[in-house]
Design a protein that fits this description.
Radius of gyration: 19 Å
Structural class: mainly alpha
Number of helices: 16
Number of domains: 2
CATH class of the largest domain: Mainly Alpha
Distance between the termini: 51 Å
Number of strands: 0
Largest sheet: none
CATH topology of the largest domain: Hypothetical protein af1432
Strand content: under 5%
CATH architecture of the largest domain: Orthogonal Bundle
Shape: globular
CATH superfamily of the largest domain: Hypothetical protein af1432
Order of helices and strands: HHHHHHHHHHHHHHHH
Length: 294
């Protein structure tokens, strides 16, 4: 007789077999690829880069929207790509364009199971909030926090695009049986969306700390190598869900675990509530001002 453990392992193996077909990142839009190539070249000059970005007005709008996010923390409004390059620098601009390229590559059609605007808004909010938290908590790599926060739920997008029937099965299990997404994902796929996201980013040679934080963004206490970044993403994820009125339904069972964030100088629930509410106005303003996800 099959045990629960052996059944789970079989489902995991089947899921990993499907994931092998998406080991190669989907092609990114030509304009974004050109910009990334320029950002990776030591011979690039500012005028070349600004010209390449300006050729795609959609990309311009997205970069300026992120740069002007209140959670991104710049003191002056960024109105041009030239000024964005001046105040952000090449590395930060590369971080922004990189996550936009992945967002474009994995863009899928909205259906009853996953609203794409809601998904990418949640990703954007978590990314910019992670960067702001990293800055406020003196974490040394704000850019890494931004990228990790933006990509933390990419496993969901991968399931929705490449294993759609499984995604719908997970969705229906959650609603019909009143179980958590974590339980439903394990039951259907043998893996959670955190494991799937981390699994693929590791295969794509993304940095280890990023993969670890994505894997543990719901349970930072299990992170062995990067607990502070994992905790920052966990907190940003919780805040993004809380202040967007619960639109990210896959996070409806997400609980803030104080033991996960105690090393972020938050000692009890009273301090946690005060800390979180200090960001409420910034979140609400940002949610109301974001337009590029339409």
């Amino acid at each position: 007789m099959e045990t629960l453990g052996s059944t789970l392992e079989q489902k995991r193996e089947k899921t990993e077999l499907i994931l092998k077909n998406v080991f190669n990142l989907p092609p990114i839009p030509k304009a974004i690829k050109e910009v990334l190539d320029l950002l990776n070249s030591p011979r690039t000059i500012n005028s070349q880069l600004c010209h390449a970005i300006s050729a795609d007005q959609g990309l311009v709008t997205k970069i300026l929207t992120i740069a002007n996010s209140p959670l991104y923390g710049l003191q002056r409004k960024v109105t041009t790509i030239e000024f964005a390059l001046l105040v952000l620098g090449y590395q930060e601009l590369k971080n922004i364009v990189s996550v936009l390229s992945i967002a474009e590559s994995f863009k899928n059609k909205t259906d009853q199971y996953l609203d794409q605007k809601t998904f990418w808004l949640h990703s954007f909010l978590t990314g910019t909030a992670s960067r702001r938290l990293a800055e406020d908590l003196d974490f040394p790599n704000e850019g890494e926090a931004f990228i990790t926060g933006f990509l933390h739920d990419m496993g969901l997008s991968i399931i929705h695009r490449f294993m759609h029937s499984s995604f719908s099965e997970v969705y229906n299990l959650v609603n019909d049986k009143s179980i958590t997404y974590y339980e439903a994902e394990l039951e259907v796929l043998g893996m959670t969306h955190e494991q799937i996201g981390s699994f693929l980013f590791e295969k794509w040679n993304f940095p280890g700390p990023l993969c670890d934080a994505i894997l543990h963004h719901h349970n930072p206490e299990n992170s062995k190598n990067n607990r502070i970044l994992s905790s920052i993403i966990h907190l940003a994820d919780y805040m993004s869900y809380k202040f967007s009125n619960g639109d990210a339904h896959w996070d409806k069972d997400l609980q803030l675990n104080l033991s996960d964030i105690s090393h972020l100088r938050i000692r009890n629930m009273e301090e946690a509530e005060k800390f979180i509410n200090d960001y409420k106005e910034l979140f609400v303003y940002q949610i109301n001002s974001v337009r590029f996800l339409n």
